[in-house]
Amino acid sequence: MPTEDFGALMPARFNCKKKPAMVVLAYINTILKELLAVNYLILAPNQPANSREYVRRLADHQVQVLAIGDCQYDQLDGHLKSHLTEYYYVPSLADQEAVVRGLAFFIHKYGLIDRVTSFSPAYQELAAHLRQQFNIEGAKPREMGRVTNKSHMKQFFEKAFVPVAKGQAIKTKRQLTSAAKKLDFPLIAKPDAGYDLAQIYYLADQDDLDQFAETWDLTPYLLEEACDFDQLVQVIGMVDDQGQVAFAAAVTSPKGLRESQSQGGEFAFTILPEMDDLLVAHVDKIVKQFKFKHTMFSLEFLQTGDKYLALVFQLGNPMPILADLVNYSFDMDSYDYFARLEAQTGDLDQPEFKEAVYLYQRPLNGNYRYDDSEIRDLYPETALAYQVADGQESFLIKEEAGETIFAPAE
């Protein structure tokens, strides 16, 4: 074949009036990029709203971001659509067969898929089933069982030699009675699966226990001794491809379970300037014990003095606005940090704490003295962000403003 005719065999985008050697090199370079690109599949890329920021940063690092969702393409956020390589619509993500067909289509078109994830906790188990079915790296359904039930979590906390509250899983009235005899009042009864605060009960004495027993529908519960504590500490972080903690920050709230229930679901959070050595050790041991990789995580502890009790381990970020709390507190881009971890673009420096920022949450339809616009007017220089999600409105402010935000209507 004459050399000058070689360019005719190239795809149209390379069939130009360049020297044949340059055409060949450009073609090979493009093919190599396609072969080496990370194929990253996200389920429900529009949930939660800040998922688009992760998509954008992944795309910025040359990751091919593919997505499957049950939102019509033309209804997706324009910012999100512009950074997706391709989107596959299914009428319902509950239809696992349709989702499997979508993933098979992507494999046929783009080659092997390197990651399957969702930034919404609702689709973590679906992602695990897809990883198992297509032999993709990451947590499979069996591993996901470790974080589905609190009773299973406690077993892994104990294997990691991290203290937990004394308690027992219960499924029958007989087990409830037996467990209560082994524990000291006051008690906490909470669903073994799920995180609905309305289903958590503080049982001060036998009368409370009897009342709970009468109304309990035998949904699996966890009965534990209620522990005195100074504050709730939530550690949010990221795990790299080796299963090591790449970044972690401790979010504290002076309000505990009983206070938040009695005060109508109002919460105040801020980030500790640094985590003490014991907390760092607990987090490292727990993450190592659970053996998850390539993920964000959340760990909850009760802190009393210099001691911690492990409560809950979750995959993903349970509160999207916490990412912005981290960004402002550390003057970093946590979305980009996670994307660089996933794209494996090199070593990442540990960000340093910059300043205290406060996150306030309150029920969206609560009876308060000031509405959201008035609060932002009251703090024009320090109000950073406002978000509405899951029936709560959240404020990020660079000063303590709880008395104003939670002030009841007169």
TrEMBL record:
This is ATP-grasp domain-containing protein. It comes from Aerococcus urinaehominis. One of its GO terms (biological process) is purine nucleotide biosynthetic process. PROSITE patterns: ATP_GRASP. Keywords: ATP-binding, Nucleotide-binding, Purine biosynthesis. GO terms for molecular function: ATP binding; metal ion binding. Pfam families: ATP-grasp. Residues 154-343 form the ATP-grasp domain.
